[in-house]
Amino acid sequence: MIRLASIKLLEIRLPLVAAFQTSAGVVGERRILLLELADVDGAVTWAECVAQSLPNYSADTVDTCWLAISDWIAPVVLGRSFEKPQAVHKALAERIRGHRMAKAAVEMGVWSLVALQRELPLARLLAAESAHARQLGTGSGETVETGVALGIEASPGDLAAAALTAASAGYRRIRLKIDPDRDVQFVEAVRDALGPAAVLAVDANGSYVPKDPQHLRALEKLDTLGLSMIEQPYAHDDFARHAELQRTLSTPLCLDESITSTATLDEMLALGSGRVVNLKPGRVGGFTEAIAIHDQCAELAVPVWCGGMLESGIGRAYNVALASLPNFTLPGDLSPSARYWERDVVMEPWTMDSSGLVRVPLDRSGIGVGVDEGFVNDLTVREKKFGAR
Ligand code: MG
């Protein structure tokens, strides 16, 4: 039984190691929404909302999530008793359409509180609630394999250099962001630099247009470069065109933005729109739906991997726990803290060994990392606390 006594929302600005260019200008810090949840018995946990500043990955943003949690989600969950975390998912799904990243932040925090209550590491709790993990009887893995996503660089040579650096750091899969202006030449340069055996993938974030013959030619050329997957070439809601493309390419298509629920997964499977799923718990409304998608994919031998949303070390803890489930058979975007942050908000920054493995913290209950509350306080630009009435 779980009953939330309070939710504190905080917006922080976390300095990035390297500033990056966006349509809105150069960004040197990440706006992040953190949550501190407390249950009526005094257990406290931190959680993270993965929404970004602008609605260019999904419709959710830091500001829409602040509104959704304040006005709609907190009133549904505070002071009410829930049998298990899945019941929180259900209560939110019944009352609030969309706003999945906002719901996920609260729902995943509840999973962490339940793990604390039961004195279990979060990864163990997730494994106990996954039908596939129970069937295998293996529980959660002790390490997770890590890959890296590389942003678009100025030239193919620059990208190849960045890929070589990433490969020598130990990353097990290198994924390149591409768009129709920067694709084949860039990927060829990386393939040449890394050699034929390197695991290489591309992610187009929906930037290709189905009826453009030039775009199709580029995708057909990419199909000859031995990629492990081509991720989300077309728009998030275009299952039919993805299916058409998958029939003409031998490289597996991976869907990311398209998969928001088990229903959209069914659509992908029924139409043949892809053969791999990039599973991000924030995008699907939290762990209840993420575990259901993981289990359903496992049944049909569809591999899943855990994508990243430029999380702080708090969000990373939730992703690492999820990625320890047994059908996460491809490396996830679980880079160490030092890749992104000058200083992370957790007491034990995430690290990766030289063979690309991140350790799952199985020696502590809950999310397995402490939060540097003083540092969070210094970074906070606004906060609001909601209590049970
Ligand atoms: Mg993606």
Helix count, DSSP H or I runs of 4 or more residues: 14
What order do the helices and strands follow? EEEHEHHHHEEHEHEHEHEHEHEHHEHE
Report helical residue fraction.
Answer: 25-40%
Structural class: alpha/beta
Bound molecules: magnesium ion
Number of strands: 14
Poorly predicted regions are none
Features:
single chain, 389 residues, alpha/beta, 7-stranded parallel β-sheet, 5-stranded antiparallel β-sheet, 14 helices, 14 strands, 38% helix, globular, binds magnesium ion
Give structural notes.
This protein is α/β, with parallel strands linked by helices. Helix content is 38%, strand content 21%. The chain is built from 14 helices and 14 strands. The protein has helices spanning 62-77, 85-95, 100-117, 122-129, 131-136, 156-169, 184-194, 213-222, 239-248, 262-271, 287-299, 313-323, 337-340, 373-379, and strands at 2-22, 25-39, 44-49, 81-82, 143-145, 148-150, 174-177, 200-203, 229-231, 253-255, 276-279, 304-306, 357-359, 380-387. A seven-stranded parallel β-sheet has the order 6-7-8-9-10-11-12. Helix 11 links the parallel strand 11 (276-279) and strand 12 (304-306). Helix 1 crosses helix 3, helix 3 (100-117) packs across helix 4 (122-129) and helix 6 packs across helix 7 (184-194). Bound molecules: magnesium ion. Residues 203, 205, 231-232, 256, 278, 307 line the site of magnesium ion.
